[in-house]
Known about the structure:
This protein is mostly helical. It has 29 helices and two strands. It has a two-stranded antiparallel sheet with strand order 1-2. A hairpin with a 2-residue loop joins strand 1 and strand 2. Helix 7 crosses helix 8. The model is unreliable at 315-321, 662-668, 673-687 and 720-730 (pLDDT under 50).
Amino acid sequence: MSGRFADALRVLLSSYVTTGVSAGLGLMLISGSAYLLLGQFAASVAAVGAIVCVPPDHAMPRRGKFLSLLPAALLGLPLFAGVQALHDQPLYLGLLLVPATFFAFLAGAWGQRGLPIVISIMFAMTFSMAVPQHLNSGGLLTTCLYFAMGSLSYLVFATLSNILLNRRYRAQMLAQSMLSLSRLMRTQADRFDPTTDTPLIGELMQQQAALADQLQAARDLLLESPRTPRRQQLAAMLINVLEIRDHLLASELDLDLVKSLPESAPVLTEMHKVIDQMADELDRQADALLRGIRPARLVDLRPALAELNRLPLASTNWTAGNTPSIATLLRGLTNRVGNVNDEILRLNRLARGKVEPDLAAVRRAWQLFVSPTSWSTRPLQVLWRWDAPPLRHAIRAALAIGTGYLLSLALPWATHGYWILVTIVVVLRGSLSQTLERRNSRVAGTIVGCLLAGAILSTQAPTLALLVIVPIAQAISHAFAIKRYLITVVAATVLSLVQAHLISIVDAPVFNALERIADTLIGVGIAWAFSYVLPSWERSQIPSLVQRTLQAQARHARVALSLGQLTAVDDEPELEWRLARKEAYDSLSALVQATRRSLSEPRAVRPALEPLENLLTHGYQLLAQLSTVKTMLLMRRHQDQGDIQETLQIAAGKIDGALSAGAAEDSSSPLAMVTWDEEAAFTDPFVYDLKPWILRRLDLACGLAECIRADASAALQQPGGEPDSSPDPV
């Protein structure tokens, strides 16, 4: 299967497209039924009611699905009715639009859950502006009933559709997580290439952050009620994906040190090829999930890795203190890559039904790993601070909408001024970088969409044909909203223009593409300009994100270095470690995204980027060191741990003391290091004494914790402060 064809097929079989098709089908059923029963106008307004409920509709657990959609319908109806009632009173309509926009954008306080509600509420008002004026209250009431009918019908349809597609969504979300992991794996493989000068650290961290978001979405679905054998199988495979991520991160350890030695080049070149093979295997298993077929049996690449240990190396006796020789380092590196291979093989056996899933702990406490589905009032309670980003964004959006509305009244083609407002709503985002990302796509997509809509409407197609085009455009727009925003804009433009034409065909039967393009440019310009009004620069968010990262890393170190997991009679310690690991990854992911967004901001207000990048690098390295230590502790769990227990406690105290900026009681105690004896440590390539490795990893982890504290102190200085000069531990 060629690369482009495979990528296209993966997109078509993804949960995004499935959700888009479901939304389009629901819209077609609702508008079609209303058309057959009540006529064209009823169908058009009912379609608006349904469209308002589409933005928050995505693949999610069955529990809470209806409640996630309900706010769009409940808040959309009174605002739709208010705009209808004030159609012929521009002043009062403006007085409604501005405060309603402010309160609508406050939903951004709920993060990713709240943003679709913002879009829904604004769509209810802007699309209502396209509905013709009504001369009596009876007409207004009828129009609102049509809107409510469309909203309620879509709520029921989307809830039922989510239940019916739940099994499919589970497989798709797992496959998408595996594809994200394989992309990360290929970037990691490029790091093994001895001829690569580019460190690729920034790309690695961005992909880690994207994978963390993808894995959380997968957790929400796959860990909901894993009671049936198929659900247990998929949940077990998700656990394996998490383990692969940890082992892949651990494969980064010692890599820069090994690459600095020319004699390691042949081994690293072959290891690069092996990791690429593993990524291909992961892709094939993801494709099998998407296509609903049983994956083929995979080949064990451990023998190939073992052969790498027998490649001739230039004679060297290179050691420094307790640092192993190049042969020992390469042996450890191939073993960590071999752990990735082992987990991929287990993933394959689980998918083929050759291994029974073991999910007792996850089944008992799955709620701990999934996102909340209830609408807590806490985000709203803590919002009323002048420096709160959602509050500032709500004020910014209200001012932008007010400006756009006043300008639309002054234009000679004021009959469709709502298009300026729609553009402002979809372009203006909470950060400058997100607004800039959407600005160019919005302009280009609108131009293409206007040309397509103009071509469609110029054919004077019958109403029934237009009622079919609208759901198709809705399906495409919703399917690519996250992955391909340009496609979404093209489809959304066609959807909006054809839908507005259906609603206002009596009042405005002529479509002018140039006017729509001009409206788009005006709306984009307003959104861009207001991005600088009451800005929430990323620099203001960095201190809390850095503090969260330090706390998460300290907690993960305490839990990972505890021996309780090896002696416990239940799964509570293992569960605690998984939660600590998840928070450590999530905190780093949030900091990566904030740092990346800050690159689009004016130089004068950017945070200190170099120490932030160092902090992120050292944070992922510390995770890798501790994950490797935990793996080795589990490998020697049947041995007496008394010889290492005190050292683990000392290391945990040192790390906690460094990250907490305070000295733990035992932080001054030296680690009980040993002299590196390779002959004693290794009897064959893969059977060796793990204690020297554990001690070395603990020593490096303590050094990394000190680097992270120095990085954090430098990152919190004002831009222009002295950069962090802490050396990387080797």
